[in-house]
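3.2 Worked example (two chains)
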Amino acid sequence: MIFRFMVEHQARWSIERMARVLGLSTSGYYPWKRREPSARTSANCALVQEIRDIQKCHKRRYGSPRVQMELNARGIKAGRKRVARLMRLNDLGCLPRKRFRVTTDSRHQEPVAENILNRQFDVAEPNTVWVSDITYIPTTDGWLYLCVVIDLFDRMVVGWSMRTDMTSAIVIDAFAMAVLRRRPTVPLVFHSDPGIQYCATAFRNASLAAMPSLVRSMSRKGNCWDRACA
């Protein structure tokens, strides 16, 4: 059992270090390792492959009870404790659910625009209707937030901004990029959700300074289909 522990953890610690800490001799470990694997070891290896296949098929959503049920359905008999131990030793446990990140905060006292667009997502001319939304992206360094501005005429992303926070600056930057790239001259409808980033005084002032003829439109509270195009 101790030698098997050393095999399973040799990627983390050297054999010599584990032998020294456990009070063993490497002269006993290496002959043991050269022996033919026992029937139990071979059976465990085959069982681990089956567990790996089950977790791959189900995107690692199964814990040991459901994995055992799936094994039984495949005609493979294995105790739950054995399945749980092999899953633990081979890092095949159930992955945690991704946390939902709220990007729309409608609980504020800022003015909210009327839903002028009203799901009329087919537009005949460019730079007449822009839609915008914010999403989140998990990275190894934490969450990043992405704001995009899309022209409904051709569904092109005409402006975007990415930040580690969700202040109104992310919307201001994306809108400024869209204006610099497209330079619209006709009256423009800008449609978004009623989140605080779009309703904030800072964004209202910045957007009107860039386009005095801008017409604001916002989806109804709690109705994501009003901005499904984004």
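3.2.1 Second chain
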Amino acid sequence: MRILQGHTLIMVCCAVLVVAWAIYPVTGAVCDGPPNSQSFILFTGGCDRSSSGLPCTQGFLFPAQPSPGGDYPTQYFLDFGDGSPPYYGTVDAVTHEYTTPERFTLKYMAGTQCDLWRESVYVLTIAAPEKGIPVVPVCPPSHPQAEFIGTPTSGFAPQAVQFTSTSSGSDAYFWRFGDGGISPARDPKHTYTKAGIYTVSLEARDSCTGTVSHAEKLSYVIVTTTLQTLSVSSSPPGAMVFIDNVAKGITPVTLTDTAIGSHQLLLTKAGFDDYTRSVLIEPSTPVTVGATLIKSLPESTNPLSTTGFIAITSSPAGATVVVDGIHRGTTPVILTEIPTGNHLVTLSFKGYDDWNHTISVGSGQMAAINAELEATKEITGSLAVITDPQGADVSVDGNFKGVSPVTIQGLSAGMHTVLLTLQDYSDNSTTITITAGQTRKYTAGLQKVYKPSVSDLLLAGGAMVLIALVALVVMFRKDRKSK
């Protein structure tokens, strides 16, 4: 009979993941690479330290840090190494039951929403129990057959394709999507961000026997470009060109990266009225726009002659805009009726350094800002706390942070005081050094406080009474002899 090892999620680790997501919200993907680093922590069970008996349930925690560009880990994988089906999910923690003493090689992975993964291994040694006969899994002959389908398999980038494994006789999977992305999920959904023709392959494996089957479909996914050419000219030339409030150059200009769909075109030039129109970009035909600019009214009759405009864009978009200390919206934005002269513009975005710039605005003119925000350097680290027994209250620098096992994010680099408290156990206090961008592991064995029972107290009281009586008898005898 084939024995499948089960695994269940630890609820407290779900809380850890919620905290992690609160600190690392999933935003627009950068797709620059896999998670920057990943930790692997053993908690609860202690299968590697105890030989008291099998089966033994071991807990694992494997949190990961974002990629250098800011892509946050959203999916996790762990192969337990004992022939049981591996774990795949969105939570960075799992427990697993081992039934045999052996040296197991565990493969663990963390991936971003772009299906870029970091892979590492951990060797877990489980000693033979002192008593008892371990359960030995039996693997019957297995012949997995890999097969899959995807839908839709063609479209414009970015194109999301839902892949479904139709394999038989398998319980572990490994996909290659042809664009550098991979996945260990059974039915992954993958997004192709660039145009191209992609070959997709699937490896279906029976974990118990290790038998593998491969399926590959050549040129299976076809993704076409969503970009088209837009040529803009003006009479007279030299006008500033904005597409959807983003500065694109000076006329005449040819833009080869304009997305398919409807866009708002704005041309602005000192001494001329703004030219605006809607432009529809279709996949099959380049678009040419020729604009005739109309001279503005003389300055004496133009009510806006003492003001100008500021067009502001940022990467990433959505930055808060403050001009001369006054909040003026979020990027991209065009600010009107800006008094002529110099103005201080500040852009703020969570996770990025503030951007400050002084810009000069001319009468009736459009000043443009295209800001590249710089990500704030990592100044915090994490602390993974594991206690035996678990369930201890964890406080850092006097502030409650959760119940062990717990991973505490966002701790400033440097020294911190950690206090562990658990009823019927002695308090445990220590000083921990946190390094920016890293997860520090702290494991503590708590000492149980001895509390005598009622029977113990009665016995102790009886013993004291007996000692007192013996002392009185001895004194009485001495007194008689002296007489």
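3.3 Remarks
Confidence is low (pLDDT under 50) at residues 1-28, 300-304.
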